[in-house]
Amino acid sequence: xxxxxxxxxxxxxxxxxxxxxxxxxxxxxxxxxxxxxxxxxxxxxxxxxxxxxxxxxxxxxxxxxxxxxxxxxxxxxxxxxxxxxxxxxx
Length: 90
What we know:
This protein has helices at 17-28, 50-62, and strands spanning 2-11, 31-36, 42-48, 68-76, 86-88. With 90 residues, the protein is α+β, with helices and mostly antiparallel strands.
C-alpha cells in the first residue's frame, strides 16, 4: 500500500473539488480524507495500491471543468487516518 499527503494549489475551493476528489477515490477504492485549508489549498491524505494511487493523483492534477489545478505537492506519509472509506472533512 502507498500512502500520500497531497496539497493542491489553484482554483480548487468553491468549485466542488472535494466532492470530485471523494467521487474519484471511491471509484478507484482509495481510502483517506480531503479538506479545504484556510490558505485556499485543498489537502488530502490517501492510501491505496501504488498503481491506483498514481492514477488517482493524475486525475486530481487534471481536475474537473470548474477547477484549475496549478501546482501539486506530493509527499509520502506514514499514516492516513480513515475508516476504510474516503471522506470529506472540515
